[in-house]
Design goal:
mainly alpha; elongated; 4 helices; 72% helix
């Protein structure tokens, strides 16, 4: 989420929140960590299943929410484009 905060001034709040949600999806890490915990007998299989279920929900909900925020962002926030040079008039 930290990179999303850094880009906030450049892309706006909604886009930064969407980026943070997309970065928070980490199901493979959760699965690996729970398997290690089970192997070391520090996590019960039931607790591991709960962690994986929560990770699965976040993998489904966070990207959907991020896309929704980005769609609204396209409508409400202007895109970043280079400023046009000021028009100059020539004296006649």
């Amino acid at each position: 989420a930290l990179p999303a905060i850094v880009y906030r001034p450049l892309v706006g709040t909604r886009s930064a929140v969407a980026a943070g949600l997309l970065q928070a999806t980490s199901l493979p890490f959760i699965v690996a960590a729970t398997q290690i915990g089970i192997a070391l007998n520090v996590v019960t299989p039931a607790t591991a299943a709960a962690f994986v279920a929560a990770g699965l929900l976040s993998a489904l909900i966070f990207p959907t929410t991020a896309l929704s925020l980005l769609r609204r962002c396209e409508v409400t926030e202007p895109t970043l484009a280079p400023a046009a040079p000021p028009e100059t008039t020539t004296p006649e």
